Structures are given as structure tokens and as C-alpha cells.
Amino acid sequence: NLVEMKLLLQAVGALLCCSLSSLNTLDPKGKNVCRSLRDPSTLECCTGWRQEGKDCTIPVCEGEQACLKNELCVKPGVCRCPPGYFGAHCKTRCPSEFWDSDCRQLCPCYPYGRCHPVTGECTCNTNRWGPLCQFPCRCARHGHCDPIYGNCTCDEGWWTSTCAKPCQCMSGGAVGPSCEQLTGRCQCHRGHWGLKCPVSCNCYMSPCNQRTGVCECDPGWWGPSCDRRCNCDLTHSSCDPASGQCLCQPGFQGPYCNKPCAPGTYGSGCMMSCGSCKDNQTCSVIDGACAACDPGWKGTQCNSSCPFGFYGDGCKQTCPHCRKNEPCDPETGNCGSCEPGWTGPRCEEACSNGTYGKACSFLCKPCVSGRCHHVTGKCICEPGFQGESCESEHIHLKAITCLCVCVCSSGIRGAVLAGVLVPLLLLLLAVLFCCLCCGGGPADGKDRSLPHFSLQFYVHLTYALHQTLDYLKSGVSNTHTHT
Ligand SMILES: *[C@@H]1O[C@H](CO)[C@@H](O)[C@H](O)[C@H]1NC(C)=O
Ligand SMILES: *[C@@H]1O[C@H](CO)[C@@H](O)[C@H](O)[C@H]1NC(C)=O
Ligand SMILES: *[C@@H]1O[C@H](CO)[C@@H](O)[C@H](O)[C@H]1NC(C)=O
Ligand SMILES: *[C@@H]1O[C@H](CO)[C@@H](O)[C@H](O)[C@H]1NC(C)=O
């Protein structure tokens, strides 16, 4: 518990420290920020102000100047009633002609409107408009005036700019009692027309234009009174309301528009031809779309060729390397022509049978021990031959780097000799090498003589070695003769 208390205290301390330090960051250019009198390097709020954020914007009214209840401190030492109030205890509302704290401002729209107690903004009375409510509304009894523009909005059933006239829509003919404010036009039921919808249309079962009374035939009917039936296939056409002629939709034809386009054609009037659909399948009579395209074609209608460098089914295959990077046939992938030295439909085969070069049209010269290069026609010789036709042999000096060491071992003598001699020989070489090194080799070009002591040593050593070898030889030959 003690530990917990300690941690808590530390946390609180840190928090206090933080908040104090952040409070202390005053902006030197902030409002009412002054330099301290005691220490000019530090900043503080000027007298009469309290800090808020990085500025000192809160006025202070303290001591004798302290504000009463309901009052607001508006400047250092100055108290006022809140906006819209006045009086010793700020309990009295401002009269309509005033606003602001202590009712110090005159309301300019009085008496035709009221002022907002804080902003002074005008709210006009119902029959006035304008920024200061200075204009009287000109709407009649059934209209309401817009406080900014002064224009009228009419009650239902009234129209004109001042809402002075009643609509008088015909009951039965009109949808409701209200009409357009500018024209006085009522909204008619289907089958009625006229400004106030008094007249029935004369169009069999179809409606008519609400202004002119001209018939607007329903689908499947035609004639001035829409009383004549169309003979068209209405799922694929409409009929001309004046002539009764069938107007076919894309993909259909015939006087009644009931015949789809012939295979291989599509569209409006069947005027378009299908693209290259796969396996000669026909395209959609309406939009020409194919289920899939033939090799070499792409697009919904299969009417665009493969892009440059591609061919085949879905244009997914890459062209081979044709002459000068020319594109291949979009359907087959074959090249028009090949680079020199190459042949075959896709230029993948080198020239053969003694030909070379462009279109394999040149005959190779004889190559005696070699073959002809398919691009250049030059002979490429077999190893060991040279010359333009590989006719002459090539003479090479073969570096002989092979060193043969024969160790002839015959019986024990050989074995002993080898066993003893080889290590001895090695020892001798090592010592010799060491002596030459330690004794100092030729330091420069002038002094090439070996130091005296090492030469002596070398001579002794060689002598000793010879003795040993002689002894060993005789010993071995003795044992040999004994056996
Ligand atoms: C009044 O006039 C204003 C501005 O011309 C316009 O935006 C508004 O729709 C009008 N109101 C009516 C009811 O006509
Ligand atoms: C595709 O149609 C054309 C024209 O109708 C015809 O000449 C061709 O033989 C057909 N090909 C196949 C593979 O059916
Ligand atoms: C393919 O057919 C469509 C539809 O008719 C057309 O808009 C488009 O231009 C045609 N594209 C080519 C490359 O002909
Ligand atoms: C190469 O020559 C042989 C024999 O004359 C012939 O059978 C073959 O078709 C030729 N090949 C080419 C690629 O010309």
C-alpha cells in the first residue's frame, strides 16, 4: 500500500508539473502579455488580465471592483449585466429598442423588428422585410413575405406574385386545389386538360397534353385520337403515333419488327456485320457481341486485330522474332520475312543444307573440316584446323608440364632406402633453406657471397649426410647378403 501511495504521489506531482509548465508558455506577441517587472526575462499577464491559452484575454474584476452576482467582468475592473439585461441586479430585460450588455445599443430595426440581444441581428415582424425591416410586405392576405427578398409565398389555392388570385382548379379534373404561383396552372388528372383542368381529352384510352389537349398515345395505339391499334411486335419495336409504322429496335427487322437479324448481321436495321467470332458462331443481333473471338481478334465485337507483337487465341501469345521486329500474322503468328540466316514460318530454324544469309538463298563455299555459319556463310573450323575453308592443320606447342618420379622398390633395401632417405633429404633441404635465409641472402647486387659461418655449416652438413648415406647403404647391402 505504501508503495502504491508513493507511486500515486509521484504521478500527481508529474501531472502538476506538466500542466504548470504548459500554462507558462505565454506568447510574447500575445494579447495583454507583459514582461515581468521583477525579472524582465520572464513573461506574465499585464495587470488586470488572466491567462487563457497563450494570451491573457480574461479581464479581472477583484476586490472593491468585484462584480455582483449576474454581472460579467468585461474589462479590468468593469462589470456589466449580461447582454439583454440591465438594472442593479441585472434582472430587467432590455426594452425592444435596445440590445447588448446593459442595453447599451440602440436596435435599428425597431419598431418593425427585434434585435438579437448579443449580435444585434434583426428579426422582422411578419409583414416587413429588408435588412432593417424597413420595407412593408406587398403580399395579399394569403401570402407570406420573404424577410430578405420581400417576395411572396402563397397559401395553397392562391397565386400571382402577391398571392391575390384563387386557383379555382376544377374538382374531378385537377389533382388538388393548388396551382403554379406564376401561371395559375392546375395539375390535371390523366385524361383532363386546360388551365384549371376542365376539359376531358378525346384520345380513346390515352392521355393528352395538359396545355394543348393534343393526344399522347399509349404504346400500341396510334392516330390523332389514339384509337387505332398498332400491328407491331411491341417487345422489339414501337409504332409511330402519326403513321402507325413500326419502328424496330436494334437486332430486329421486317414490317412488324418480329424477325431477328440474319446470321452474321446485327444492330439498327441489321446494317452491321458481325466481327470474327470464334468458330463462325453468330454474334448478338442486338449489339454484335461474340461469345469468344477467333485467334487474332479481340474486343466485345471481335472486330479489332491483336495489338502489335501479339497473336493467337485471345491475343495472348507473343510474336516470334521476325525481320526488323515486324509484327507477325495476328492469327497464325507467322512472320512475313526472317532475319538473314533464319527460316521457317516463325524464323526459328537456322539455314541448313549448305545455305546461309537472307532467305537462306546463298550457297556455302566448301568447308573441308568444319561447317558453314548460317548467317555469315564463313567456315567454322573443327578443333585443330584453320584457314578459310578449314583446309590446313593447326600446329600447337603443347606445354609439357608432366613430371615423372619413379621410385623403384625392390625388397627391403628399397623400402628402407626410401623410408630413411626421403625424410633425410627433406631435412637437408629444410636446413639448407633455413641457413640461406638466416644467413642473409644477397642484400643487394654487389654482395653475392654467402657469409662464412653458414657456408661452413652447409659443407659440414652435406658431409655428414654423405657419411650417413654411405653407412646406411653398406648396412643394408650387408643384411641383404646375409639373407
Ligand atoms: C424569392 O426570391 C428569391 C431570390 O430571387 C428566390 O430565391 C426565392 O425562391 C423566391 N421565393 C419565392 C417564394 O418565390
Ligand atoms: C465460316 O463462314 C463462312 C461464311 O459463312 C464460310 O465461308 C466458312 O467456310 C465458314 N467456316 C467454318 C469453319 O465454318
Ligand atoms: C468495333 O465495333 C464497335 C461497335 O460497332 C465500334 O464502335 C468500333 O469502332 C469497332 N472497332 C473497330 C476497330 O472497328
Ligand atoms: C536438305 O536436303 C535433303 C536431301 O537433299 C532434303 O531431303 C531435305 O528436305 C533438305 N532440307 C531442307 C531444309 O532443305
From TrEMBL:
Q: List the disulfide bonds.
A: C81-C90, C248-C257, C381-C390
The UniProt transmembrane annotation reads 415-439
Q: Which domain of life is it from?
A: Eukaryota
Give the source species: Sphaeramia orbicularis (orbiculate cardinalfish)
Quick one: signal sequence residues?
Answer: 1-23
Do you know which SMART domains this protein is assigned to? Answer: EGF, EGF_Lam
Keyword annotations: Disulfide bond, EGF-like domain, Laminin EGF-like domain, Membrane, Repeat, Signal, Transmembrane, Transmembrane helix
The taxonomic lineage of its organism, from the top, reads: Eukaryota, Metazoa, Chordata, Craniata, Vertebrata
Q: Which GO terms describe its molecular function?
A: low-density lipoprotein particle binding; scavenger receptor activity
User: What are the residue boundaries of the Laminin EGF-like domain, all occurrences included?
Assistant: 230-272
What Pfam families does UniProt report for this protein, alphabetically? EGF_laminin (PF00053)
What is the protein named? Scavenger receptor class F, member 1
Q: Which residues form the EGF-like domain?
A: 57-91, 356-391
Gene Ontology CC, one term: membrane
What processes does the entry annotate via GO biological process terms? dendrite development; heterophilic cell-cell adhesion via plasma membrane cell adhesion molecules; neuron remodeling
